[in-house]
Design brief:
The protein starts with 20 loop residues before the first strand and ends in a 5-residue tail after the last strand. It has one domain: 2,3-Dihydroxybiphenyl 1,2-Dioxygenase, domain 1 (Roll). Strands 1-4-3-2 form a four-stranded mixed sheet, with helices on one face. A four-stranded mixed sheet has the order 5-8-7-6, covered by helices on one side. It is an alpha/beta fold. A hairpin with a 5-residue loop joins strand 7 and strand 8. The chain is globular and about 55 Å long. Helices cover about 15% and strands about 40% of the residues.
Length: about 140
């Protein structure tokens, strides 16, 4: 028998995952960047009348969506302003950063050891979305 603690009432909100969905200026460019530079894998491509409109990507347990901007809010609309994605891994952060650089990526922040016990680096995607890839110290797999 499995022990299950009694939930507080009223029950609090409970999620199991979050999946970012980013609207991008050039879906082909972004798809290439996420797969070739970062190493995501394409799970599914979404096309309409033969034209790529979006894609779902995976990396480990993480799912990530990209969709082509339809520019109804203007072509010069800035993206990625005021937000950062924190992506946690157990992989060696130095090796990941080196691989990103080898594949043509430019780090916005080099690997840094933080006082709160993580090591991380930051990279910015083609639309200005900031991704900080972080590893807890001692969490190497």
């Amino acid at each position: 028998m499995t022990y299950s603690p009694k939930r507080k009432q009223p029950e609090s909100l409970r999620f199991r995952a979050v999946t970012p969905s980013l609207t991008v200026n050039d879906i082909s460019r972004s798809l290439a960047w996420y797969t070739k530079v970062l190493g995501f894998t394409v799970e599914e491509r979404y096309e309409h009348e033969g034209k790529l409109g979006g894609a779902s990507l995976v990396a480990g347990d993480l799912r990530w969506f990209l969709s082509q901007d339809d520019f109804t809010k203007g072509r010069d609309r800035r993206k990625g302003v005021g937000m950062r994605f924190l992506l946690e891994t157990v992989q060696d952060i130095d090796q990941l950063a080196a691989a990103v650089k080898t594949r043509g990526g430019t780090l916005a922040e080099e690997v840094t050891e933080r006082s709160w016990g993580t090591r991380d680096f930051t990279i910015i995607d083609p639309d200005g979305f900031r991704l900080t890839i972080t590893q807890q110290q001692g969490d190497e797999e």
